C-alpha cells in the first residue's frame, strides 16, 4: 500500500504512518482510500477501506477512531476500544493501542517520547491549535527529563500558500502569543492572510518544551492525487495519521 512514513528519529518500537487516498475502493468524490464514516460516502466501502488498511499496515489492533469536533480534548486510551470516542486527540502508554487523527486539510500531529513509552495523535485544526490542544496532548506525557524528551511529527495538511484566513484566526493566535503573527502573510485584500499551520504548531510546541519537531512539508490542498482536501473540494474523503507502541 502507499503510505507516508514519518521522517523523524523515533525509537524503533514506535510505529507510525500517514495514509493517502491511493488504493481503497471508494468512488466519485471519495475516490480512493477514504477513512471517514461521516462524510457521506457509502459506509460499507469505508469499512472495507479500514479493514484493508489495518491488514496492509499490520496494525496490532483496529485504530482508536475519534469523533473530532475541533475541540481541545485529548483522551487517554489504555486498552482496545470498539466505540468512537469524542475527542480530537488520543494518548496511550500501552503497547498495541493505535492512536489516530483523521484529516482533510487540518494538521495531524503525532508525538512520542524518546524512550518510546508514550505516544499521541492529534487532529489540530486552527481552532484546536489556538485553543491549546497540542499543549493538552503534551501534558499527558509523564516521566520526562533530560534523557527522555518529547518529539513531534507534523503530517500532511493544507500548506502556507493555500490556507487563507481572516482577522479572526490571526487574532486567536496573536492573543496567545504576539510572535504568532510571524506565521501569517498578509494578502492584498485587507483582512485576509495566508496562515502557516506547521509554523503555528511548531511555535506552540516549542513553548511547552518540545524542541524536536519534524515537518512533513506535504500539502493536502496542492496534491489532489495523494490527498483529500476539504478546502479544495468541499465534498471529499479523509486520510488519517496513526501511531502506536510495539
TrEMBL record:
This protein's UniProt keywords: Hydrolase, Metal-binding, Transferase, Zinc
UniProt keyword annotation of Glycosyltransferase present: no
SUPFAM superfamilies documented for this protein: CNF1/YfiH-like putative cysteine hydrolases (SSF64438)
CDD domains reported in the protein's UniProt record: YfiH
Regions annotated as coiled coil: none
Entry-linked Pfam families: Cu-oxidase_4
Protein name, entry field: Purine nucleoside phosphorylase
Organism in which the protein naturally occurs: Vibrio splendidus
Amino acid at each position: 500500500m502507499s503510505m507516508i512514513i514519518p521522517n523523524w528519529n523515533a525509537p524503533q518500537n514506535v510505529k507510525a504512518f500517514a495514509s493517502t487516498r491511493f488504493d481503497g475502493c471508494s468512488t466519485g468524490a471519495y475516490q480512493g482510500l477514504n477513512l471517514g464514516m461521516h462524510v457521506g460516502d457509502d459506509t460499507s466501502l469505508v469499512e472495507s477501506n479500514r479493514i484493508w488498511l489495518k491488514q496492509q499496515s499490520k496494525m496490532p489492533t483496529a485504530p482508536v477512531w475519534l469523533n473530532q469536533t475541533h475541540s481541545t480534548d485529548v483522551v487517554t486510551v489504555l486498552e482496545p476500544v470498539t466505540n468512537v470516542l469524542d475527542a480530537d486527540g488520543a494518548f496511550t502508554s500501552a503497547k498495541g493501542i493505535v492512536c489516530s487523527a483523521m484529516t482533510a486539510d487540518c494538521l495531524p500531529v503525532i508525538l512520542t517520547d524518546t524512550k518510546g513509552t508514550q505516544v499521541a495523535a492529534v487532529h489540530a485544526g486552527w481552532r484546536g491549535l489556538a485553543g491549546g490542544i497540542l499543549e493538552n496532548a503534551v501534558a499527558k506525557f509523564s516521566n520526562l527529563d533530560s534523557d527522555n524528551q518529547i518529539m513531534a511529527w507534523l503530517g500532511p495538511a493544507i500548506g502556507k500558500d493555500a490556507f487563507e484566513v481572516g482577522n479572526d484566526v490571526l487574532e486567536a493566535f496573536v492573543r496567545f502569543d504576539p510572535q504568532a503573527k510571524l506565521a501569517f502573510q498578509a494578502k492584498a485584500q485587507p483582512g485576509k492572510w495566508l496562515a502557516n499551520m506547521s509554523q503555528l504548531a511548531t511555535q506552540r510546541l516549542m513553548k511547552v518544551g518540545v524542541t524536536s519537531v519534524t515537518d512533513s512539508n506535504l500539502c493536502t490542498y496542492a496534491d489532489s492525487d495523494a490527498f483529500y482536501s476539504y478546502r479544495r473540494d468541499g465534498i471529499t474523503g479523509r486520510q488519517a495519521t496513526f501511531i502506536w507502541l510495539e
